[in-house]
Amino acid sequence: MEKQxxxxxxxxxxxxxxxxxxxxxxxxxxxxxxxxxxGKAKNLKNRVSxxxxxxxxxxxxxxxxxxxxxxxxxxxxxxxxxxxxxxxxLIKKFLPRYNVMLKDSKSYPWICVRNEPxxxxxxxxxxxxxxxxxxxxxxxxxxxxxxxxxxxSLYYLRSCKLNLSEENIRTKRYRPCLDYHLGKCKAPCAGLxxxxxxxxxIESIKLIxxxxxxxxxxxxxxxxxxxxxxxxFEEAQRYKEKIEVIERHYSKSMVVSQTVTNVDVFSxxxxxxxxxxxxxxxxxxxxxxxxxxxxxxxxxxEPAVILTLFIAEIRSKYGPLSPExxxxxxxxxxxxxCSIKIPVRGEKLKLLDLSKKNSVLFKSEKLRQExxxxxxxxxxxxxxxxxxxLNLPDLPRHIECFDNSNIQGKYAxxxxxxxxxxxxxxxxxxxxxxxxxxxxxxxxxMKEVVNRRYSRLLAENSPLPQLVVIDGGRGQLNFAWEAxxxxxxxxxxxxxxxxxxxxxxFIPGDPDPLFLDKNSASLRLIMNMRDEAHRFGIKHxxxxxxxxxxxxxxxxxxxIGKKSEQKLLTKYKSxxxxxxxxxxxxxxxxxxxxxxxxxxWLESESSDTRDTNL
Length: 614
Known about the structure:
Distance between the termini: 92 Å
Oligomer: single chain
Largest sheet: 7 strands, mixed
CATH class of the largest domain: Alpha Beta
Number of helices: 20
Helix content: 40-55%
CATH topology of the largest domain: Nucleotidyltransferase, domain 5
Shape: extended
CATH architecture of the largest domain: 2-Layer Sandwich
Strand content: 15-25%
Radius of gyration: 36 Å
Number of domains: 5
């Protein structure tokens, strides 16, 4: 078996040596002849050789992919631009297992100008290459519907599905419908509206859908002035109303700046093997389009590669790019028709920040949706993200978290909560009453409970966690690390601390704290454990404090011994519960004489309280 693997590797290395040093697209095939990965390259030989000559630099998932390669195919093209286009088309055709996959936006609405005589303008969710013009997609149907309402209020468009051929119109096959009588359509079906006049409407509608409303307003204003000069005041009023409708609609669009004209903005937010992209199109200073797309990465890819795929997808599917595109970092390919800018200040930076905000919110929304609809997949993703962020060798399927509680050193307790497979395992939760530490010393308390917890697990030969989280800063973390080191577990258990002030993560031996994305699944998992440990510890601390108060109070009642005191503590838990209990019930529990003494004491306590209040 090993010999076969070595022979395969040598054969592939020899193949790589004869690859051309030109731009092109390469394809990896498995032993069944299926394409498992498609990539582009400025230099085919240099790019493909990276998979075989430096395997130690590959991620684990990429190593799995390379182990399945049996054949390499390639196609040479003229330029890097052609390679990008060919790669995009081949990925969509073959859907290779290890390529980044765009989660298609088929559910997004489009506005379609139909390819037919006297074209209809309508909303659709299907993109069909039938010669029709499509504008969009729009991130919300309400935006698309508002544009259609604007268009229908400005122009006379047909809504019927009749075949308006020249023959049918000439022979008067159809009669005007209700829309004609309502003033919504000028009945081209009956020959009452000429095709050239209808075509002028369609050209104006295309400009509106492209966001170029300025030229439409100028045209309407010129026609309004002409009509008023010719004393056609009703016609002038109609043009004035149309101008107001357009201005009112576009006033709802977000105006970016008079200095930012026609630009496209791209940003990405990453979460483990997912990327969430936001695309914004700005025309004449206004945002006319915003779209979110999700990408899945079966193997690790550089952010620049994902950005290139994102831009290429927008260009190939939604039309030509604007003359200038704004990005957070450079893509790994050039787009010759565009000027690529990475802003550092000014209005364009504000626009990029807006796009980043949208991509982060889109990521959060998708992850919350996944948590509700696919909880198991979400848990796996959270553990994988935590393993990556903390550089753990394996998924942390067993995690424990510690928290301390005390009041000026009194009633000092600690709590240990256990998460297995990303969820609380409440049967494994443990409380600790502090025995060796005197006074308020959080550091020594943490060392004691960590030592007690894992010395017991070692003695019982129980499974150890992959990760231990300490609620506290570097001080508590160092003492917990010292406890693990004394037990010889420093290489078997990974340790991390979380501080409340800025939710920074501390790692033993690392002088700098780790700041995770506030919306990341890994930080949310750590914070969830920290909060659960705090809740569990406070509950025990409160019960212990209440028990201590009862003990100190009842022990002061003459005539009630230790056994009676213990019975009362076991049954009632608090003084309030004892006060509200029936006298006969207390007599049954501790006897008539002790019950009488207790009741007398409780009544005197209540009388003293009333006198004080008075």
